[in-house]
Amino acid sequence: MFIMERKKAFIIPFPQHGHINPMLSMTKELINKHHFDVIFYGLDDRREAIENTGATYRKFKHFNLTNFPKMPDLVDVFTYQLKVSNQELPTLLEDYIRDQPDVIIYDFMSLHGKFLLKFIRKKKCLKQPLGVNFNPTFALKPGIFPTDEEWSEAMNKNFWDIIRLVWLFILQAILSIKFRLNIWNTMKFFTETDELNLVGISPEFQPKREYFGNELKFVGHSASDQIQKAKIISDKKLEKILDSIDVINPSFDLDQRTEKVLIFASLGTVFNDFKQIFDKILDAFKLFESEDPSLKSFLIMSVGHTVFEEYKDYQCPDNMIILPYVPQINVLEKASLFITHGGMGSTNEAIYFAVPLIFIPMSADQPFVAKRLCDDFNLGIRFKPFDFTSPQLKDGMVKIINDHTYRQRTFDFSKILNKYNGGKMAADEIAKFIDERDKKQK
């Protein structure tokens, strides 16, 4: 009887939801279709989701995102990761020597994953695993996308930022000397490619795709509705609101004016501790209701646990609910409008269900996502997070709900992006690459 040899994989992400979630479908495919044993690193807030794929969950020992800045820029992210990598790398190396994985899949933001591979490759006596760089957002090419001007805008340099960059350089030097690694420019190291490079968006979504070569494989967004859709909704009021609205996305009748409008607002799981923004959304929704009283409108706000504590005594009417968390897929399939921070995961899910968007981008890649979808594809409207008023937001709501061309364009774009199954394609590419490498080595 032939027994298929099982390959072993390490998955080493940057342990935030937006970086772990896009890898879950790929993990499930690697385990179920390609017979991999997967060890997936993370933190306890995503343990259940990781284990549901069939992977073995392994907790990072030194990450503590409770101390992560509310509005981090790239310097914050790199500085934090260099500090953590200094502590985490010896543990990861011990795990590698013990488990001997065939492939290490790391998030492009996971400097500790990159450092581990770089260290292993210096030691020729160690088994050399396949390195897979997984990017859940736009691919980057310095000077092309983002442009030098866009990088400078994202960095927003001032005197204190120069001091922070000097400190970043010192941390790079310490880590390079300690582990004998040549890491003197984290910004450059951040955009380096590996043996296999997967981008978790469709090629049509990528800005300036023509400037990126074949070294990148655009696999598309993961079919996350299959993983994250809740079978049971625990909040009875939320369940009642959703039960009162038909599923309209993505196969709705574009010419039919719905009598019920569901507006969904969420700023994600990282940059969501800003009650003043949610207050503006609440005020804008009240103005929106008064604009057309004949239209039955609903508002669902997912505000995170910190802000929810400030709203716990707020008396919501029957058509409004504020919760720390909602099952996003269940809401999006019935939503007429999504007010979002513009995280790549949430944005792709909105497009998957053909929901028009209002962006309030907070940080990271969110301004680039908002600019791409609003300026290039005209799928929504974007506001700067602290520079808009409730009446301006209300006008945006009215414009998108009443102008059905937004729905049409979003629907058309969803058909393009939904051709791809990112999880399946990513797993297939990894398995194919390993098989081809094994054949060459025989």
From TrEMBL:
SUPFAM superfamilies: UDP-Glycosyltransferase/glycogen phosphorylase
InterPro entries recorded: EryCIII-like_C, UDP-glycosyltransferase, UDP_glucos_trans
One annotated GO molecular function: UDP-glycosyltransferase activity
Keyword line: Glycosyltransferase, Transferase
UniProt cross-references to Gene3D superfamilies, sorted A to Z: Glycogen Phosphorylase B
One Pfam family in the UniProt entry: EryCIII-like_C
Domain Erythromycin biosynthesis protein CIII-like C-terminal, residue spans: 315-410
Glycosyltransferase in keyword set: yes
Stated family: Belongs to the UDP-glycosyltransferase family.
PANTHER family from the UniProt entry: EG:EG0003.4 PROTEIN-RELATED, FI06409P-RELATED
Protein name from the UniProt record: UDP-glucuronosyltransferase-like protein 5
Higher taxonomy: Eukaryota, Metazoa, Spiralia, Gnathifera, Rotifera
